[in-house]
Each structure stands twice: as C-alpha cells, then as structure tokens.
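TICKET: design request
STATUS: open
ATTACHED STRUCTURE:
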C-alpha cells in the first residue's frame, strides 16, 4: 500500500510537471514523515498495527501536500519571474511558511486527543493519533528544511544533464605533401 501510494503521487505529479525532477523533490520528503511517525510510535512503546499504518498513508498525503506548496511556488517563480532555483525556493518558502505551519499545527493539535486518549478503544485511537502526530511534527520540521534542498539539488542535476556536450574540435586539416 505504501509503495502504491508513493508511486501514485509520483506519477500524477510527473504528468503534471512533465518532468521527473520536481515530483522527486516532492516524494523524497515522505520517508522523513514515515520515519518520524515510527520513531514516535516506538518512543511510546506501541506496536505498528493497522491503525498506525493507516496513519502512515495519511502522512504520505500530508507530506506531499506541504512539499507541493513549496515546489509549485518555486517552479512558478522560476518560470514566470526568471529567478534562479535558489532564489525561487527561498521566496517560495517565505511565501508558504505561514500556511504550512498553520495547517500543520492545527492538524497536530487536532490529533492530540487521539494520541492521548483514554477509556474504551483507547489503544486504537492512540495508535492512529500517535503516528499522525509525530509524523506531522517530523514532516513539518524536515519538510521546511529538506524540500528546498531536494528542489535545488534536483534542479541542478537536471540542468547538468540537459546541457549539450560541446562538439569535439576537428583535427587540423592535413597539409598535402
């Protein structure tokens, strides 16, 4: 399920951007969110059950959403304003910082009651809430710092690969004897 989720995001964005680099910049943040969620579940001494895995699938979408906000604004700044990738991604991060943080904090605070639930069925709510809460904390922290790095790195790789090699110099013409 996880691989299918990531591949579907990758292929949809590949079709939208007509490039592999930008979707990779989006998808590369997903492992950070999954790692954060699993570390949170481990820290609370919980197991990786079905509800934890449902939370991980939710995190794939949320991690991709935050990365898309940054990548899309950076791409537009490059194409429409003629900015270089570094300036474009810095501007995109400045523009999208508040919406990303507001969404993340509201979501994290919304699942706190799940993560610390008590009573009947608390184990299920705790499993889902813990995975999503720690995953969102991780994707917010890592996403704001690593998505721009992934974007600039992949744009650099694409530019290097698209450069046409210089044609070899022709040897000097032989002088007839």
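STATUS: resolved
RESOLUTION: sequence designed for all positions
ATTACHED SEQUENCE:
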């Amino acid at each position: 399920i996880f691989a299918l989720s990531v591949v579907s995001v990758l292929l949809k964005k590949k079709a939208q951007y007509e490039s592999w680099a930008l979707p990779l910049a989006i998808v590369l943040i997903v492992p950070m969110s999954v790692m954060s969620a699993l570390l949170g579940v481990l820290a609370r001494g919980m197991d990786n059950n079905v509800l934890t895995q449902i939370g991980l699938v939710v995190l794939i979408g949320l991690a991709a959403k935050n990365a898309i906000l940054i990548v899309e604004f950076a791409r537009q700044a490059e194409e429409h304003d003629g900015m270089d990738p570094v300036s474009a991604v810095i501007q995109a991060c400045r523009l999208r910082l508040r919406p990303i943080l507001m969404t993340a904090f509201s979501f994290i605070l919304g699942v706190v009651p799940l993560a610390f639930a008590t009573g009947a069925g608390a184990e299920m709510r705790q499993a889902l809430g813990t995975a999503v809460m720690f995953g969102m904390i991780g994707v917010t922290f890592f996403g704001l710092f690593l998505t721009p790095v992934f974007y600039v790195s992949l744009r650099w790789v694409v530019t290097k690969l698209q450069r046409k090699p210089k044609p070899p110099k022709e040897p000097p013409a032989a002088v007839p004897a």
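CLOSING REMARK: Residues 5-9+22-160 form a domain with the Multidrug efflux transporter AcrB transmembrane fold fold (CATH 1.20.1640.10). The chain has a mean pLDDT of 86.
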